[in-house]
Amino acid sequence: MSWSLIINVAAEHVEILAAELFDLGALGVETHEPGMQLMPGTPALPEGGGRCVAHFRERATALEAAQGVRETALFAALEVPPPLEVPEQDWARAWRAHHRALRVGPRSWVHPPWEKPDAAPGEALVCIDPGMAFGTGQHPTTALCLERVDELLARRPGADLLDVGTGSGVIALLAKKLGARRVVGTENDPLALRIAAENEARNGIAGIEWALQDPAQVPGEFQIVVANILLNTLTELAPQIAAKVAPGGRLVLSGLLALQGGLAEAAYEPLGLRPAGRRQREGWLRVELVRP
User: Are residues 102 and 137 in contact, defined by beta-carbon separation less than 8 angstroms?
Assistant: First the structure.
């Protein structure tokens, strides 16, 4: 037998909790996020929330992990139920089956370390270890952003790019691989930035600026700005993010549910940006704006 911890958490903290559970000894962590199609029989997610299901070989390890979550400041208020006993499975192998190479744009792929895609010559490949969490390209919002970064850099070779809330760094890494000149990834979580820097080394890339800063603290303007975060944060940071878009530049926003596009646009239009397109996938939305 093996043991599982099933923990409900705010949607914006799902991947952070997953990374914490791996650090605490989980063999694998399933993440359930809003808009995701769940397996039959899986309980519905709480309103506005997500879920992590962490798998452990020993009950003692699961209990220690549960205590470790409770002692983490960000998760101190979470309800962490006792571990559940489940039939033995090869969780490492089963977990890997959920993470495969994924084409994310006309010239680009994201893949785990154990599966390299059969890419055409000249296509960009970004390797992300899903065990590090924070964004693997699998979620529709990340995939939508990666797709648009590929398209924009094809039109604007060598453009500068700012990735707000970079997470694993996957968007910044792809931009650098596709020839962006200056690439900056910002975060408010030092663990995420550490993982992003590790992913940079894993991909043999150098020169990305990783910044534990708000967008307003990053010098300069950018031809492409990407922010794949939730609506409340996109709205809160709108003045800072909008100020980073250069004249003629593009702002790509995601992390939005399908019905939230108008709210996102309304936060940025008074700041001099004009709507320039939308794209939807699996109930999630990407909004694009331009500074004239």
Answer: yes
Residue type, 245: V
265-273 mean pLDDT: 98
pLDDT of residue 110: 93
Q: Are 2 and 88 in contact (CB under 8 A)?
A: yes
Amino acid at residue number 181 = R
Beta strand 124-127 pairing with 161-164: unpaired
Q: Let me know: does 113 contact 130? Beta carbons within 8 Å.
A: no
What range does the domain containing 24 cover? Answer: 2-95
What percent of the chain shows pLDDT beyond 90?
A: 68
Examine the fold and report which residue of 74, 95, 116 is the final residue of a domain before the chain moves on. 95
CATH number of the domain encompassing residue 165? 3.40.50.150
How many angstroms from the chain centroid is the CA of residue 84? 28
User: Three-state secondary structure along 243-259?
Assistant: CCEEEEEEEEEEEEEHH
pTM of the model: 0.73
Cα separation of 146 and 266, whole Å? 24
Local structure of 43: helix, strand or coil? coil
* Cβ contact 29:133 at 8 Å: yes
Split into its structural domains, the chain has a count of 2
* CA-based torsion, 210, 212, 214, 220: positive or negative: negative
